[in-house]
């Protein structure tokens, strides 16, 4: 009789593990709390085109494993930092040569900040940078670019630099190739991965109990038994303690859950009747907007001629904006745009605004290194328990955290671990 494996969570990690285990004829079942598979990669709406409100990017496109799942249907466009447009405090574009020159200086600041953190105790990236730049005399443009770069981190990582570990905030291996936006959304990839999986939707797990001979998984409506369980829940859900583990998880794993941070990254997409912004740019950064404003916008019109701007907010800005109504968020954006592009602008035709910290099955967007955390915490989070509980998901990925390919590869990793233990029995 084939060994029974239950996977808690039908995101990319869970789907990857399921497909891999089925190749070795395990009896695999996914329990997914949502009413659809795909996890944080699956939500989408219609803005005249399919539009993903969760994961939307492939970071490093050269033979990226997640893109290869459904290469024929995964339509993506390459985005170049050289085509980013920065506006100064007066709303004027900053010349590209000044940006290139400052990028070199900023990269040196980051290297020195990491050195400071390793020479002494780990401190926040904010503290380390403050130490590095305390004798710098910035021009007004350099100061604007410095703030824009930090705002970019806030969105990219999902947390303010005051909370990031100066030692470890960027401890990951970049996948080779360009960063690409998925015009097709992740749906073709999710559909391919889900095609042969046995997925129980609307299955909210409340308790997991390890017994001598099996694992008991309890949902609100059913009780399941398995030889082993793969837990692919987002770090935010683990932090929320919405699942009871019996016996409790080992202390080092509980500590890792506490030490690592769960970032917040929200998307605000607006469709207009026509574009009124510079269409040659891939993205726009507005340095003059206040700290509670969205200051980074991806220009979809450049790639597919759809007059859609995608605003990105992270960290404290995202948290503040989640307290606004959707209408207030859009009004604030339009007020800021009027200061740059003129008082008379077209009214939005449609928009979508995410609130990932309010999603009970995510409680945030993706993991990051808090001050004082380290790669040891990711390793502890990934450790199995009693050869019965296995852990996957982007937060368990040492090399590729906070990415879809990191989540996918972690699912393959745990499937391999289970095969090594149970395929011989």
Account of the protein in words:
This protein is of the alpha/beta class and 425 residues long. The protein folds into two domains: 4-49 and 51-59 and 183-261 and 375-422, FAD/NAD(P)-binding domain; 81-165 and 265-363, Alpha-Beta Complex (Polyamine Oxidase, Chain A, domain 2). Helix content is 34%, strand content 21%. It has helices spanning 12-23, 65-68, 96-119, 125-133, 140-157, 187-194, 235-240, 251-259, 301-304, 315-321, 326-341, 375-382, 404-422; strands spanning 4-8, 27-31, 44-46, 50-52, 57-59, 76-79, 84-87, 179-182, 199-200, 205-210, 215-219, 223-226, 228-231, 244-246, 261-263, 265-271, 283-286, 296-299, 308-314, 350-353, 366-368, 389-391. The strands form six sheets. A six-stranded mixed beta sheet has the order 7-17-18-19-16-20. Helix 1 (12-23) links the parallel strand 1 (4-8) and strand 2. Helix 1 (12-23) runs parallel beside helix 13, helix 3 (96-119) crosses helix 4 (125-133) and helix 8 crosses helix 12. The model has no long low-confidence stretch (mean pLDDT 94).
């Amino acid at each position: 009789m084939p060994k029974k494996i239950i996977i808690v969570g039908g995101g990319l990690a869970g789907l990857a593990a399921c497909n891999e285990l089925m190749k070795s004829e395990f009896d695999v079942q996914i329990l997914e709390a949502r009413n659809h598979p795909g996890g944080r990669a699956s939500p989408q709406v219609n803005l005249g085109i399919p539009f993903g409100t969760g994961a939307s990017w492939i970071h490093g496109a050269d033979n990226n494993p997640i893109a290869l799942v459904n290469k024929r249907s995964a339509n993506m466009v390459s985005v170049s930092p050289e085509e980013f447009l920065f506006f100064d405090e007066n709303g004027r574009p900053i010349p590209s040569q000044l940006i290139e020159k400052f990028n070199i200086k900023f990269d040196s600041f980051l290297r020195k900040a990491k050195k400071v953190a390793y020479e002494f105790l780990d401190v926040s990236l904010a503290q380390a940078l403050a130490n590095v730049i305390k004798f710098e005399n910035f021009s007004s443009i350099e100061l604007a670019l410095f703030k824009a770069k930090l705002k970019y981190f806030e969105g990219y990582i999902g947390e303010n630099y005051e909370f990031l570990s100066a030692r470890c905030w960027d401890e990951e291996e970049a996948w080779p190739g360009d960063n690409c936006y998925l015009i097709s959304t992740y749906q073709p990839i999710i559909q391919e991965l889900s095609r042969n999986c046995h997925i129980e939707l609307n299955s909210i797990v409340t308790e997991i109990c390890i017994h001598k001979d099996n694992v008991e998984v309890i949902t609100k409506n059913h009780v399941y038994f398995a030889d082993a369980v793969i837990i692919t829940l987002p770090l935010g859900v683990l932090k929320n303690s919405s699942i009871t583990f019996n016996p409790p998880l080992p202390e080092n794993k509980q500590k890792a859950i506490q030490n690592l941070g769960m970032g917040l990254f929200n998307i605000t997409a607006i469709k207009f009747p026509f574009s009124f912004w510079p269409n040659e740019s891939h993205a726009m950064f507005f340095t003059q907007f206040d700290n509670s404003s969205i200051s980074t916008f991806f220009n979809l019109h450049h790639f597919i001629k759809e007059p859609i701007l995608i605003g990105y907010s992270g960290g404290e800005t995202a948290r503040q904006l989640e307290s606004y109504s959707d209408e207030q968020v859009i009004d604030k954006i339009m007020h800021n745009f009027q200061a740059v592009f003129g008082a008379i602008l077209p009214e939005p035709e449609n928009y979508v605004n995410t609130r990932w910290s309010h999603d009970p099955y995510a409680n945030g967007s993706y993991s990051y290194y808090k001050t004082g955390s380290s790669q040891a915490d990711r390793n502890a989070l990934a450790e199995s328990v009693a050869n019965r509980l296995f852990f996957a998901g982007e937060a368990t990925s040492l090399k590729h955290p906070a990415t879809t390919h990191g989540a996918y590869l972690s699912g393959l990793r745990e499937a391999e671990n289970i095969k090594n233990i149970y395929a011989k029995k």
